[in-house]
Amino acid sequence: MQLRNPHLQLSCALVLRFLALVSWDIPGARALDNGLARTPTMGWLHWERFMCNLDCQEEPDSCISEKLFMEMAELLVSDGWKDAGYDYLCIDDCWMAPQRDSEGRLQADPQRFPHGIRQLANYVHSKGLKLGVYADVGNKTCSGFPGSFGYYDIDAQTFADWGVDLLKFDGCYCDSLESLADGYKHMSLALNRTGRSIVYSCEWPLYMWPFQKPNYTEIRQYCNHWRNYADIDDSWKSIKSILDWTSSNQERIVDVAGPGGWNDPDMGDNFEVWERPLSDLAWAVAVINRQEIGGPRSYTMSVASLGKGVACNPACFITQHLPVKKKLGFYEWTSRLRTHINPTGTVLLRLENAMQRSLQDLL
């Protein structure tokens, strides 16, 4: 994939931030009291266009590298986006090296970011822009790079030392909803303790919605804006789905938004997950695709999050019962399960705890 028209690609990606301007009607609504995001954050994020392209040898103009972000910084200025208020240049997943350094700190991939994030931040600041980076509340990022679990304070200070201005904090590879919430709160406090002004962009509700309704009153106490949905697609159909969902959920999300804390709608996933305990520590899990048109859609779940976090601890056997019965096999607690579901369809799963099943086999 070559960067054939960077001006077009930049404007397409900027749609994401423009759509985050969800209207607010309650002047008294308050969020994280760090003095930031008094108006909705606007800028450019790489994921929708470039995703996790690591092949800089074959695709040097579109891989995730410091070269790409320096070019985009120049375009934000030269094309007038900065003057229009789009002043954040944000790195999404796949910027990291596969391992932390000897002192436990995150580090940028040395081949794709040879000068490091600190120097990239200095360059971005020299253009009058601000730099955002990505990390994850769990053990790994969504693309498998080092997560921040157990390193919240170290990572917050690292970002501050680099001169980062915004943190997008994802929610992959987290073993329970409780750990998810605790991690988002911990990082919020850790960022504040650094003394640097860092906008905190949470994905907290995105990972709550399939299991329970998010507590937006609590979320706004810790986050400057919060993501409600999964990744946006490069199409008008995707954008329309955002507008439709936002319109139909005004009563839930409008009152919590205001200076300092904002809804970040992005794109609706239209999946629901239902869980019920069965006998012998087994669980029934139903995944429902609420979308009414189109083809089958894939949905990926963290196995550790299923069955209230206990069904597959330390491992489980999973059998699909609907739409057709088939054995999916053995899954460890750290695994991820991917399903394909037709529009308005349901996939019904039975999770059997591996330890309980072994005991039954012995009897």
3D structure, described in words:
- There is one protein chain.
- This protein is of the alpha/beta class and 363 residues long.
- 29% of the residues lie in helices and 21% in strands.
- A hairpin with a 3-residue loop joins strand 11 (315-322) and strand 12 (326-332).
- Helix 3 runs parallel beside helix 4 (116-126) and helix 5 (152-162) crosses helix 6 (177-193).
- The protein starts with 5 loop residues before the first helix and ends with a helix.
- Mean pLDDT is 83; it is low at 1-31.
Outline:
The chain has 363 residues and is an alpha/beta fold. The protein has helices at residues 6-19, 47-50, 66-78, 116-126, 152-162, 177-193, 204-208, 216-219, 236-248, 250-253, 354-362, and strands spanning 43-45, 88-90, 130-136, 166-170, 199-202, 225-227, 262-264, 271-277, 283-289, 297-302, 315-322, 326-332, 336-341, 346-353.
What's the total number of strands? 14
Q: Total number of helical segments?
A: 11
Strand order of the largest sheet: 1-2-3-4-5-6-7
Structural class by helix and strand composition = alpha/beta
